[in-house]
């Protein structure tokens, strides 16, 4: 196989691995909200903390410095890889839109054993991760005309994904 074709196939495979699988979001309705959700979790998946931080909004940035955010997010993703989200439901309560999402994450064996217990964590064959799904209610709001994540889902490992700002 020519080198250029191998290089292109390798690049395409790497890009596919960096793409977040998403389903069930069209039923949520608001296109701008759907885009914000997809943008946030794609940034989280690729560890693009600059984009994820921007999608938390100005009120979050006033409370949490970027350097602290990026450092903690790097720590919190160790052993976890977000691979997909599924939209389940949406409920509007005042100025907060609560979106229930099912998150699919691949866990390293150490994380799986700590989270699920050694008896439920499957042994890692060839370093293969264990798939884990979790429902969580995320919170979104309009801030200066843009959807931002108030609470994008802590999922048992993200300290800064809890709600940090209140009205």
Topology of this protein?
Blueprint: H1 3-17, E1 21-23, H2 31-45, H3 49-54, H4 58-63, H5 66-77, E2 80-93, E3 96-107, H6 109-116, E4 130-143, E5 146-151
Parallel strand pairs: 1-2
Antiparallel strand pairs: 2-3, 3-4, 4-5
Give a description of the structure.
With 167 residues, the protein is α+β, with helices and mostly antiparallel strands. The chain is 37% helix and 29% strand. It has six helices and five strands; from the N terminus they run αβααααββαββ. It has a five-stranded mixed sheet. Residues 1-16 have low confidence and may be disordered.
> Based on CA inertia axes, which overall geometry fits?
globular
How many β strands by DSSP? Answer: 5
CATH class: Alpha Beta
The share of residues in helices is 25-40%
- Counting structural domains, the number is 1
């Amino acid at each position: 196989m020519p080198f250029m074709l191998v290089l292109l196939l390798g690049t395409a495979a790497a890009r596919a691995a960096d793409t977040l699988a998403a389903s069930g979001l069209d039923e949520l309705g608001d296109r701008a909200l759907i885009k914000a959700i997809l943008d946030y979790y794609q940034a989280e998946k690729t560890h693009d903390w600059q984009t994820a931080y921007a999608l938390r909004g100005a009120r979050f940035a006033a409370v949490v410095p970027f350097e602290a955010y990026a450092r903690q997010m790097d720590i919190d993703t160790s052993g976890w890889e977000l691979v997909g989200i599924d939209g389940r439901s949406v409920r509007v309560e005042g100025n907060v839109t609560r979106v229930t999402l099912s998150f699919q994450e691949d866990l390293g064996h150490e994380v799986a054993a700590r989270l699920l217990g050694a008896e439920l964590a499957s042994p890692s064959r060839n370093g293969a991760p264990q798939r884990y799904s979790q429902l969580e209610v995320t919170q979104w709001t309009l801030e200066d005309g843009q959807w931002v994540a108030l609470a994008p889902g802590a999922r048992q490992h993200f300290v800064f994904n809890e709600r940090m700002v209140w009205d």
